Amino acid sequence: MAEQNFDRHVTQIKQPITLKIATYNIHACIGGDGQFDPARIAAVLKEIDADIIALQEVEHHSIDELDLLEYLAYQTGHEAIAGPTLFRETRHYGNALLTKLPLKSFKHIDLSVAGFEPRGAIEATFDVAGYELQVITTHLGLKSAERRWQVKQLLDVKSQQEADISCLLGDVNEWLLWGRPLRWLHRHFSTPPHLATFPARWPLFALDRIWIAPQRCQIKLSVHKSVLAKQASDHLPLVANIAF
Asked: Which residues form the signal peptide (predicted)?
């Protein structure tokens, strides 16, 4: 009888759930050779094979009668969430999320500062076997004053959601490791390794970032450095493995 009770107890223990999350500035699918090649970006996304992929510099225009984001989603088997920040008569431009996970909700966050290129973020929540995962993806501004204000807004958004795991990721455009936006983010999330992702062929700068809270849930952080990834965009993808 004791053995039966023990066996029942063991079956009730949740096994760890692992996910792969990535961020990738696809540079409008223009590679280091100056060629527009969405198939090359799709192939890199397949190499990564992440559950959630944050994309920056996504242009929305037709590829074989499909919108570019729809094309990438179709090629990789993901669902797409668009987050354009720059609206034009043709070829809207901005952020996006690709996901294999069931989506609970999402919203767009305006991070634009007057006089500068419009910026924004996507906040999405996912149900992962009963756990709630919050994902915030963004592409921050080029000026330090922009980034300081934008990071404060993002930290406010993160603090308003009581998720089991929160992830903030994207291209933060912070060239200086001692810049205030990075210091604030590290103080809030803890400090992940500084892994260079730009420029893709000879990476020197850690412009692309992934922060996970609680930090103990992050089990690996790495740069995807395949031959194809070094050609497909001017950034390399950054990948995190997390465990619930």
From this structure: none
Average pLDDT of the chain to the nearest whole number: 90
| DSSP characters over 58-123 | EEE-EETTEEHHHHHHHHHT-EEEEEEEE--SS-EEEEEEEESSPEEEEEEEE---TTS---EEEE
Return the CATH class of domain 18-243: alpha beta
Q: Which helix (H) or strand (E) holds 46?
A: helix 38-48
pTM for this structure?
A: 0.90
- Work out whether strand 66-67 and strand 165-171 pair parallel, antiparallel, or are unpaired: unpaired
Q: So where are the chain's domains?
A: 18-243
Residues 88-143 have pLDDT tens digits of 666 678 999 999 999 999 999 999 999 999 999 999 999 998 899 999 999 999 99
